[in-house]
User: What shape does this take?
Amino acid sequence: MPAAKILVVDDQPINVQLLKRKLEREGMQVATSYTGREALESVKTSKPDLILLDVMMPDMDGIEVCQKLQADGETKSIPVIFITARTSKEGKIEGLGVGAVDYITKPIDLDETLARVQTQLRFVSINRELVDLQRRLGETRRAATIGAVTQGIAHNLNNLLGVVIGYIDLIKAYADKPDLVRKNTGSLEDAVNRIVAIIKQLTGLVVKNRPPLAPTSLARLLDAGISRYKSEFRIEQPVTIENGIADLAFETNAEVFEEALAKLLINAWESYHDAPDDQRPITVRTEIADRGDEGRHLLVHVEDRGLGLKSEERDNFFEPFISTKHTVGVGMGLTIARHSLRNLGGEVTLDEREGGGAFATIRHPLDRKHRPL
Assistant: This one.
């Protein structure tokens, strides 16, 4: 395990040398600075694991240094322990208020300082392990998704290829009967289109980079997404739009947004199973939500009054090829919709609707302070 890197910042050389010697005896790497500005430059060139920072310095005091560290995303997570001659409660609160994790009062007790440094380094180690665990969990989830997709792709393509071969055999058998040839040719075309759709969906799932963004009208996106849903799935029934935001303009990728909306709409349509077409009401409703530090988000709800969510399906609804339908070649719509919106920094969720049915929600960021990776 590499030695911990400590930066000691104090305008009094004797304090710096005492701390340096004590920490180096414990196997730590110690860098030193004698001014606030020098400390900020040192942090840029060699990011320390922890900073011991004197509060009272002539050119730039420790409070200002800490504020600048907190304002920079690259250095915000570095823990700072203040070294201060102030013993008042107000002075200590001020230091903790600007981001310091602890404080040491002068005259410096070297053993106490070492104990506080070791405590904070343990916290740093735990936080790194948590970050690494989250990364590995993410990789595991992605690997599991890829495995599920691969298995689902193989199963669906094998079934569809069997269907294709079957219709080809029928066309050959009825070569002298044009009506049956036309009927089987249409069915053959549908099966081939499903194969194409699976390949297209798989391509969308593999893409990891955030697609390009451009200012787009919400009203136009809703109309285009609904038109795509009707055209792709040959549906004529109208969709009710309740857009209380008026004509909002925001940055997004129109292709991704429209495709995700179309997939949520067909999911809502199919939730009615065998109900007549004119008894499948679907409503698209919009609102803006303030998510605090995450900024404002656009919410687009797709509501249905279908059969709702079964308890055994709820936890797995976004897994590839999890579907309540028995048709060959379906089951990735919600997976693709969620993956696409996450690439835009958003999310897709599915919940039970009060009074029956379900509602899916597209959540899309409106404030681009935090860009998705």
